[in-house]
Amino acid sequence: MIKCIVSDMDGTLLNSAEEISRENKQAIELAQKNGVEVVIATGRSYIEARHALDEAELLCPVISLNGAVVWNKEGIIVSSNPIEINQFKEARKILDKSNLYYEIYTNKGTYTSNIEESMASLVDILATAMPELEPLYITEKVSERFKSNLVTVIDDYDRLYDDPQIEFYKMFVFSPNIPLLGATGGELKQETDLVISSSGRGNLEITSKESQKGIALAHFLAERNIAMSDTMALGDSFNDVSMFEKVGRPVAMGNAPSEIKKICGEVTLTNNENGVAEAILKALNEK
Question: Is the pLDDT confidence value at 149 over 70?
């Protein structure tokens, strides 16, 4: 019997409009009413995750930044795994040498050193991933990220070192140059002890060794006496693999790459077809 359902956000719980559909919302609420713990596990920061959850009026614990910070449903941090400062500096050297654009996620917020490059990179990635969307709509969605103060512009990342209280949680790298991303990811794996993953074509996500969705989920569930074997995980990308490898029921989205589908075995509908709702209702009906 499934006692916990954990869902990724982008490409999974969220549709192409970055919204939680009515069907997905209702399925989550039904699971909660049946005593099932529903957890969100995302590469997003907590504030970005909550933005989407608040719009749908859903209250769930959140594993943010791929496991770097875990929040209970009341919005209180229960654990965090920042990047060690020397590892962080080494990763920055490698990224800067490759001339790759990246954002930095911290306990003080998310930072970009170049708002124009940030917007251009995100628009290019979204347009490639979702060609059915209008270019103007994509540009407006990306602009909302800055209008909502979800990202802070800083002229020099070195200035972040001046704050002794800052903790570095994740580096998010964007580029349409896939071979360069692959080569840089390989160098990061060779020269650091950091975890290099990806939530989609055209990006890299860099976190500490302990900052993986599967590790964070295992700790979260152990404190609640819920077995991983009684847990279902839904996702669409490679930063979900650490969950898929640990839970009893891994489920890939219909829009996931073939490699992810092979890892999971079970495949639901796409994120634009309410695949999360379909998987949840299927699991609940098997009780």
Answer: no
